[in-house]
Amino acid sequence: MARPAAPRSASRSASPDQKERLLAATERLLASQGLVSVTTRDIARAANVAEGALYHHFGDKAELIVAVCLHQLGDFPEVLHSLPLQVGQDTVQKNLEHVLESAFAFHHRITPLVCSLFADQELLVKVRGMMNERSMGPGRAAFAIAAYLRAEQQLGRVAASVAPETVAELMMAVSFNTALCDQFFCGGSENKGKARQRLREAVRALMIGLQPANGEDRTAGKGARK
After folding, report:
1. Dist. CA 179–CA 168, nearest whole Å
2. CATH architecture of the region 73-210
3. How is 166-196 classified by DSSP, letter by letter?
4. What does CATH list as the number for 8-59?
């Protein structure tokens, strides 16, 4: 997709408000029409800005898509950043439930966009490259969760034999799969209470392996996986 030259008037009038409107318009159009049929001209028209203004804020469509992904994060980054403060507080199960619910809310918003990228391989390659360069993706979330679980292991609240990275990856897989199934089979309309219950059941299942056994050597397995 060729990038149109941005008129000088568009550059001068560009503003943060325009950027927010462009992101909101992109999210609406992607949700209603899908990625393949939406053009930058459609997005600019929906945001009531000149197409040149779109390219003032975003270098190309791939950069716009990455910005939309970041815009959809919600409170998930804050939840992850607060995990070190939760070590030793409340219960491990409740803390993990909170993380999983926040992850699911993000995945539920982003799943349609992520899946639609596979219909445009050129755009997918560009978006993937940008995300890798910026260290974006599920690996960062899994790293934060694993760090939390290792800290809880030190307190004896998580079994020393548990591999925190594996548990973190399983949590992200559960979140994304639950979001994908709801979007695909229910059109994104599954009752929120029902979805929350499914997530809590997943955490309870994980807790069977996370709970320290009576008399367990808390130092066992600590160096097994780093």
Report:
1. 17
2. Orthogonal Bundle (1.10)
3. HHHHHHHHHHHHHHHHHHHHSTT---HHHHH
4. 1.10.10.60
pLDDT in tens, 34-83: 888 899 999 999 999 999 999 999 999 999 999 999 999 999 999 999 99
Q: What is the dihedral of CA 14, 19, 24, 29, to 10 degrees?
A: 70
Q: Where in the chain is the domain with CATH 1.10.10.60?
A: 8-59
The answer to whether residue 85 scores a pLDDT higher than 80 is yes
Contact 37, 84 (CB under 8 A): no
pLDDT band for 188, please (50, 70, 90 cuts): confident
* CA separation for the pair 65, 68 (Å, rounded): 5
Place of tokens 């609240």: 157
Is 43:20 a contact under the CB 8 Å cutoff? no
- Rounded Cα–Cα distance for residues 226 and 163 (Å): 9
CA distances from 3 to 10, 48, 69, 126 (A): 14, 18, 21, 15
Domain with CATH 1.10.357 in the chain: 73-210
